[in-house]
Amino acid sequence: MSIKQTTSTPKSNLPLGKTRTYNEIVEFLNSHWTAQDDAKSADRMKKLDKALGSPSSKVPTVLIAGTNGKSLTTHFATKLFKEEGLVAGALYAPHILTYNERFFIDTDFISNKNFTDISNEVINASEENAINATTQELLIAIGLFYFAQNNVAVAIMEVEKGGVSHPLAAVTSPKIVAITRVTAQDADEEGQALDAPFQEYIGLVKEGTHLVSADQNKTNLKRMSDYTKDVKGIWEMPIRKLTVLPYPFEQLHGRCAALAERIASIFINQNVPKELAVQEDSSLLMKKKGQRGRPTLEAKRQSELNPKRTLEHFWKETINSLAGRFQIFDKEKPTILIDNASNIDAFKNFLLGVRLMHYQRSLKGLALVVGCYQENLDYQEFLRQVRYFFKKTSGHIILCPVTPKEGVFCTSWDPEKVANDMKDLKIKARAASNFKEAFEFAKKSVTDRHGLVAIVGCSSLLAEYWNSKGIKKLQG
User: Fold this and answer.
1) Could you give the 3-state DSSP secondary structure of residue 344?
2) Which of 56, 246, 366, 444 could form a disulfide with 171, with the two C-beta atoms 3.0–4.6 Å apart?
3) How far is CA 402 from CA 6, 31, 58, 375, 382, in A?
4) Which CATH architecture has domain 327-468?
5) 234 - beta bridge partners?
6) H runs (alpha helix) in 129-194
7) Beta pairing, strands 335-339 & 327-329
8) 22-268 is classed in which CATH architecture?
9) Is 106 left (phi over 0), alpha (psi -120 to 50) or beta?
10) Global pTM?
11) Which tens digits make up the pLDDT trace of 238-273?
């Protein structure tokens, strides 16, 4: 039998306080972001968790850290747990349009009503106990409270920046820590993790925690293994192969899918009581008891008549359906591609994806609309990547400024300077004064339905795309 769990929000025993509307909750959260690193964050997080009845102790957690691929790994792991009959909570970061996008149970994000009710309780608990929590701390508490009230079997939580200094580390004792990759800004030229980010990531591992990584640098993996053994954690073999996904997603997301598969397998085989898990015969991930001798003729016949669903079947049917992460709209004219790649490593992967699409179906025109924060990119490497891309692929690029959202403390790049630098490198480039102008020009320049307009950059840029379509809330 599968675990049967409710996805409605039971009433809380916390004292009543001020009742805010949904919009008032959003305004409150928008006003309580801070860019300052605060040594007291862990203490505030512990106090807030305790004030809420310690929901962190009621939910088994999996923490996902690393430079890139965290949201996709979380997304795929959630789908695998659902396939196994386990209700999983997922905490994503950042959101694109609404805070609701951060909180999922299975593949559905939190409703406005549940978000409003739970946020009121969390904010009131913070105020009544004089905790003065930041928005990041409040969002973590909202997620833990939501997952605990719905009795999820596991909460998969994205550590969007850092690791051991992140508020999540203060209140969770994770069953599993997964480190996706240590790349670009967190590693040197040889791919070896810099000491500061490495210590941040690895510090999430505690006694009894399983650590698994999709990083490919042998030195990084050796350091992870040694540290895990030192703290009496459990080192798992790292991810070596890509999971086979439908074209072109295998090369783009195959390692995230493989890491998600390992996460779900470890959790199910180590932490789920047999009586609560799906039946062993129907599980894709549960280790089976060895069979002695050859199967009987009747067993073979039944197997042929009723072929068992396998992981290969699951992945063949599974693609990324997380909004903004290499999302293709091929019913548009021209085709639209959006991606929230915000650093150089993610941008390289995005360009690979465009090339794969071109190999699959020759593009009849291509325009890239790019907007970034200047703090997020290795600028010279960015120029090199764009120059190489357009040597192999015909098209042009339009640069536009970015307007930071609440909680983003970065500066938009100067599109005029970027365009001029690209022109010096013989790249067809132009600057736009805003996203709307850039998008309209891109669509006019690519008129064939088999052409492609690709929009890439931070989540703030994608928010402008959705706003231009008149969409105020993404579908879960």
Assistant:
1) helix
2) 56
3) 41, 20, 40, 12, 17
4) Alpha-Beta Complex (3.90)
5) 210
6) 135-149, 167-171
7) antiparallel
8) 3-Layer(aba) Sandwich (3.40)
9) left
10) 0.91
11) 999 999 999 999 999 999 999 999 999 999 998 776
